[in-house]
DNA sequence: GCATCATCTTA
DNA sequence: GTAAGATGATGCG
């Protein structure tokens, strides 16, 4: 076999200056399609031939890495460093023998001659980048890597041509790039690797990302267009349509043959622009038959470490790349040098995302909206607003989304609104953008005028509102005196939907339920991330600082995606009536109530908290002092690591237990078994510093400065079981177990003339266990109103309830809780500090007396295996994806979760029903619902009305399965009574 | 500056 | 043994 890549040898110097005449078009008719090549002869045992898209790394790393990378001369070196790291990473990974780094040149190419638009939208290259380029060229040469720049040819085309020749000659190829256009070159012998992000793209990855084969990429780009390259695409066809058409018809030629069968705007665009297609196709095609000469020997890497070492030393010295310089002194251990480079690559990767946004923002800014095909509109004048209003009034339902200055609803200011009345069409009304130099800023419609005209529509219950996480939007609109109705208020006659809650109800475990996650999971679409438009970390700006054309794309996409999700979920829910009921009758009404509760907030007594804080602090300081005395030196008592070393090494206390990651375990369970003065001090110190940092100080910080109220946020689509969670601050883990901890609770108060009232379901999960298991002994105990733990002890030990000792009751309580958690003998033994055998005996005795409970455990496990899910009392399906996991530990964990899920999840269903039931009867002028803590509701009630209100609440909660549940179509014949206990007082502690 | 670990709080 | 969230310390870069 002859040399593979020498068809047109003209010059054997690999840094040669070949040139192509840009006026000569490539031969498109005869052009080989790399994606369709036969690769059966390719020898994958050899190192791959590496083709590096040097221009990509130049731009990518320049924009992504911090400009603070400079040498002492002020030369910015970020692109040099980034490109160098990419090259070294490739060499370390593949140990290639042949390689080429390709760069574009400044000369025009045939594409510029074909189209004046081609890359015309690109701004001039920054001077800070230009001055780095010579260094990069020199570095590549000094590393002994062939460098290719050919006048009149783009790096893409050189790579395409060499990739074709290499595969033809039996080499497999790694193209090092992040440019998606290159996907048209992927086949079973050619992969793409982005050494900056680490992403590898093979045939399957192309299919996963775009739903088409690599050989369809050219047609895909032709249809969709590429704004950054100035390829127009077909109007009316975007990513989704292009994919659908290609999946159905294979290629554009076949589409045009069957144009009569194609529907919608896509067909119109194809017919009207059929003539442009061959032209755009040529622009989108990477040339694979360039008339260039390249000898295989010229693409050999010079691996002799001494060949260019002086040049490298000079470069590294001038650039002040110290690690790289040091690596040169170990020529026999190139891995050392490469290793240190690999480390710094990891570093750059951590910075990679930082400026990703800047780069894409700039690109978007340059090219304007590239989504004409999607019919996304920015509403900037009265006529456009008028027609939008008309469309919204006429629609049975529409998507609304608010854009604001913050993810925290309490501080968010409205910036704009987006709407969608059908999929693929969306409108953005910018209101308060204020980016300096953005010419659209002055054209925005007036915020208050717009809101005033929208108010009647948004408050119209006959027009359904669709949204993603509507509770947030409802909060925002409430700020502007708009009560969002027809969406989170229950409106059975419209299509109101919250897509986040729909996804959660359908399958809580399938995905997280943020919009980006839903788009990925249900629409196979990657959305524009917020970070892409607003930046990340310290550089992030608020949405009002985003240019309006970029903001509009982002906001329109949100509304559009939400509408598409609505379509998907509408079908899903039509096929599962119970899921539809859970969404519309349980979750959406709950969201509405949560919205009010969050807005209400709970009053705290700041002076009391501050006093506590001071007191805790004094005690903490005293404890620290005593600890240092005992230890003989000062150390950080709050550091488990330092404490472990002090206790078990320096003080030689026995009982040091190792934990994974190697340090001593100093958890409460370990320490409490040790008799040592330092242990007592530590435990007290920890308790106090926990209370101070997590509660007294934190609550004071988050309380509203004017009203002294604390407003938590409830997350309704987060847990695997249906429970809520609470953040910023978490008001579901306020201390109660210790006397000192309860002091925190005393800071939650009612205002003058009112009291705090707490109502909680007694033993709700055990009652659910009684219901689900139907166990005679357990149901009997609840029906007789016995002390359930004492009754359990009596039953298991075969004695009278009156004779049960406190220890016996405590053990029974542990086993009862253990049941709810999918108990093992191991776990129970640890809890009760007994041997595993004793614990097992106890469990065996329990199951003998409560055979129904044993059956529940067996049946629930079986159901999880057979169906892949378990169900709550209202029929909520809780999926158990790990139930067949290959790892035994994971699998057993999934079994325990499956046993617990119906109990915890049903309790969550019931408290949500209870919230709805109570909300229906609560006299709003006398009482407000403030908090939900899983089985407890907390209210603020007029002091003189507390008895009556308490009775209303108790009745509503106890009767919920006979009243509200039945009204909504859930008929549950509950096996035991639901018992609610209430109490009230000046603060939350007294009310409990 | 950001992620992870260990710890502690709740139902 | 279930389900959560917040914190300070620590390590990474």
UniProtKB/TrEMBL annotation:
It catalyses: DNA(n) + a 2'-deoxyribonucleoside 5'-triphosphate = DNA(n+1) + diphosphate. Residues 1-27, 343-369 are annotated as: Disordered. It is an enzyme of class 2 (transferase). Signal peptide: none annotated. Residues 741-945 form the DNA-directed DNA polymerase family A palm domain. The keyword Protein biosynthesis does not apply. Keywords: DNA damage, DNA repair, DNA replication, DNA-binding, DNA-directed DNA polymerase, Exonuclease, Hydrolase, Nuclease, Nucleotidyltransferase, Transferase. It comes from the Bacteria. Residues 376-574 form the 3'-5' exonuclease domain. Residues 45-302 form the 5'-3' exonuclease domain. GO terms for biological process: DNA-templated DNA replication; double-strand break repair. GO terms for molecular function: 3'-5' exonuclease activity; 5'-3' exonuclease activity; DNA binding; DNA-directed DNA polymerase activity. InterPro entries: 3'-5'_exonuclease_dom, 5-3_exonucl_a-hlix_arch_N, 5-3_exonuclease, 5-3_exonuclease_C_sf, DNA-dir_DNA_pol_A_CS, DNA-dir_DNA_pol_A_palm_dom, DNA/RNA_pol_sf, DNA_polI_H3TH. Pfam families: 5_3_exonuc (PF01367), 5_3_exonuc_N (PF02739), DNA_pol_A (PF00476), DNA_pol_A_exo1 (PF01612). The keyword Aminoacyl-tRNA synthetase does not apply. PANTHER family: DNA POLYMERASE I, DNA POLYMERASE NU. Single-chain monomer with multiple functions. Belongs to the DNA polymerase type-A family. This is DNA polymerase I.
């Amino acid at each position: 076999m002859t040399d593979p890549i020498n068809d047109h040898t003209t010059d054997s110097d690999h840094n040669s200056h070949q040139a192509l005449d840009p006026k000569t078009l490539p031969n498109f008719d005869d052009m080989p399609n790399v994606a369709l090549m036969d690769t059966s002869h390719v020898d994958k045992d050899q190192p791959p031939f590496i083709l590096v898209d040097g221009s990509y790394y130049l731009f990518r790393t320049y924009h992504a890495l911090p400009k603070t990378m400079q040498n002492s001369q002020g030369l910015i070196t970020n692109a040099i460093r980034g490109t160098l790291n990419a090259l070294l990473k490739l060499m370390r990974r593949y140990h290639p023998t042949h390689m080429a780094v390709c760069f574009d040149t400044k000369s025009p190419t045939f594409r510029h001659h074909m189209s004046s638009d081609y890359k015309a939208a690109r701004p001039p290259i920054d001077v800070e980048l230009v001055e780095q380029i010579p260094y990069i060229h020199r570095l590549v040469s000094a590393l002994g890597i062939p460098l290719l720049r050919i006048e009149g040819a783009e790096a893409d085309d050189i790579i395409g041509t060499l990739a074709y020749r290499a595969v033809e000659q039996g080499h497999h190829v790694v193209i090092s790039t992040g440019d998606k256009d290159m996907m048209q070159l992927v086949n079973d012998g050619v992969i793409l690797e982005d050494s900056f992000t680490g992403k590898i793209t093979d045939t399957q990855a192309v299919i996963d990302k775009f739903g088409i084969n690599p050989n369809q990429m050219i047609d895909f780009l032709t249809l969709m267009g590429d704004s950054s390259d100035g390829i127009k695409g077909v109007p009316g066809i975007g990513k989704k349509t292009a994919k659908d058409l290609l999946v159905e018809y294979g290629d554009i030629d076949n589409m045009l043959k069957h144009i009569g069968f194609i529907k919608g705007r896509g067909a119109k665009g194809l017919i009207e622009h059929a003539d442009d297609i061959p032209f755009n196709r040529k622009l989108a095609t990477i040339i694979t038959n360039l008339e260039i000469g390249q000898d295989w020997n010229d693409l050999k890497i010079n691996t002799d470490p001494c060949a260019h070492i002086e040049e490298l030393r000079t470069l590294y010295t001038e650039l002040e790349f110290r690690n790289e310089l040091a690596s040169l002194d170990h020529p026999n251990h190139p891995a050392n040098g490469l290793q240190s480079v690999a480390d710094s690559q990891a570093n750059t990767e951590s910075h990679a995302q930082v400026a990703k946004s800047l780069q894409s923002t700039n690109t978007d800014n340059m090219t304007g909206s590239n989504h004409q095909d999607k019919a996304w509109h920015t509403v900037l004048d009265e006529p456009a607003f008028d027609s939008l209003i008309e469309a919204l009034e006429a629609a049975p339902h529409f998507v609304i989304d608010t854009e604001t200055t913050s993810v925290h609803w309490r501080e968010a200011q409205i910036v704009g609104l987006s709407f969608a009345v059908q999929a693929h069409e969306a409108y953005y009304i910018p209101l308060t953008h204020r980016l300096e130099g953005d010419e659209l800023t002055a054209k925005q419609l007036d915020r208050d005028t717009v809101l005033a005209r929208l108010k009647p529509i948004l408050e119209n219950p006959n027009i359904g509102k669709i949204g993603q996480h509507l509770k947030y939007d409802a909060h925002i609109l409430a700020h502007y005196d708009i009560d969002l109705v027809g969406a989170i208020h229950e409106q059975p006659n419209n299509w109101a939907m919250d897509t986040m809650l729909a996804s959660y109800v359908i399958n809580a475990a399938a995905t997280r339920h943020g919009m980006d996650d839903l788009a990925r999971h249900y629409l196979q679409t990657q959305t524009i991330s917020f970070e892409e438009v607003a930046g990340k970390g310290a550089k992030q700006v608020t949405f009002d600082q985003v240019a309006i054309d970029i903001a509009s794309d982002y906001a329109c996409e949100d509304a559009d995606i939400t509408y598409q999700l609505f379509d998907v979920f509408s079908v899903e829910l039509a096929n599962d009536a119970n899921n539809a009921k859970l969404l519309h009758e349980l979750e959406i009404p709950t969201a509405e109530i949560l919205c009010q509760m969050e807005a209400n907030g709970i009053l705290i007594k700041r002076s009391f908290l501050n006093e506590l804080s001071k007191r805790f602090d004094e005690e903490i300081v005293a404890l620290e002092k005593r600890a240092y005395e005992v230890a003989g030196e000062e150390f950080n008592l709050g550091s488990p690591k330092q404490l472990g070393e002090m206790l078990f090494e320096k003080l030689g206390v026995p009982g040091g237990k190792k934990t994974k990651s190697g340090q001593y375990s100093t958890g409460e369970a370990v320490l409490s078994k040790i008799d040592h003065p330092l242990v007592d001090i530590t435990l007290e110190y920890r308790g106090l510093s926990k209370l101070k940092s997590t509660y007294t100080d934190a609550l004071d910080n988050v309380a509203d400065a004017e009203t002294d109220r604390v407003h938590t946020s409830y997350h309704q689509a987060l847990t695997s079981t249906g429970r809520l969670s609470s953040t910023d601050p978490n008001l579901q883990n306020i201390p109660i177990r210790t006397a000192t901890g309860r002091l925190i609770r005393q800071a939650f108060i009612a205002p003058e003339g009112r009291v705090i009232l707490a109502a909680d379901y007694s033993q709700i999960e055990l009652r659910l266990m009684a219901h689900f298991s139907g166990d005679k002994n357990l149901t009997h105990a609840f029906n007789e109103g016995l002390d359930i733990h004492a009754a359990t002890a009596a039953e298991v030990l075969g004695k009278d309830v009156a004779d049960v000792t406190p220890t016996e009751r405590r053990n029974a309580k542990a086993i009862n809780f253990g049941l709810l958690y999918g108990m093992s003998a191991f776990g129970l033994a640890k809890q009760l500090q007994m041997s595993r055998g004793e614990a097992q005996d106890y469990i065996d005795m329990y199951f003998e007396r409560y055979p129904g409970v044993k059956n529940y455990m067996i049946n629930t496990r079986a159901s999880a295996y057979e169906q892949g899910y378990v169900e709550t009392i209202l029929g909520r399906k809780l999926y158990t994806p790990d139930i067949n996991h290959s790892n035994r530990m994971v699998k057993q964990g999934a079994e325990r979760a499956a046993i617990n899920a119906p109990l915890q999840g049903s309790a969550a269903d019931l408290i949500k029903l209870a919230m709805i039931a109570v909300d229906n009867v609560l006299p709003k002028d006398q009482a407000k619902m403030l908090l939900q803590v899983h089985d407890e509701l907390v209210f603020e009630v007029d002091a003189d009305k507390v008895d009556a209100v308490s009775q209303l609440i108790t009745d509503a909660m106890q009767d919920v399965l006979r009243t509200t549940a039945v009204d909504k179509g859930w008929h549950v014949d509950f096996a035991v009574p639901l018992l609610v206990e209430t109490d009230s007082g000046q603060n939350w502690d007294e009310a409990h």
